[in-house]
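Hi everyone,

Forwarding the result from last night's run.
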Amino acid sequence: MPGITRKRVGELQRGILRILLDYPEGLPAKEVLQRLEQVAPPTEFEKAHYPKRPDIRRFEKMARFSTIGPVKAGWLVKSKGRWYITEEGKKAYHQIQDPAEFASEATRLYYEWRATKPSATSELEEELPEVASTIETATDAASTVEEAEETAWTEIEQYVKGMNPYDLQNLVAALLRAMGYYVYWNAPPGPDKGIDLLAHNDPLAGC
């Protein structure tokens, strides 16, 4: 069975960072993976689906797997369904041009991180060809959680964007109260259709 080489891992890693270089505000993970298909086109092996999971293509799973090293190296940040490149990631991208060397350095930094976390479960292995044969089971749980989080944040964002402005105002007021703020003015709907809230962390401030 074809495997995934260290060079190929580096190509995927560098491809992801290359995309994010143009988006300092980050991008949704799914959009990064869609763009990656143009930056680092999938091989025939990666285009195929897993035999035991015919609904899952190898390319996206392997791309997600390749991000483990850059995340632990501090080159890539994942937050609320979005991926961001860090300043260290920008430096690494420009300084290490060779994909195999890039992957090797990410792996080295991963093991440095892991050495400080003795109880951490292994996410990478020394031999990448062996990883390729076990990637389906080794990363399935973590990938599922990550994808579920991304979907949840996307749905929350879409829901908030579609809310009635006054419903959003009431939601923000409720959130502020839950955070310990005192909301002493929550404007009722008016002819100007303005959205107004007055809140303070001091209960006497609005008196």
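The chain is about 55% helix and 15% strand.

Cheers,
N.
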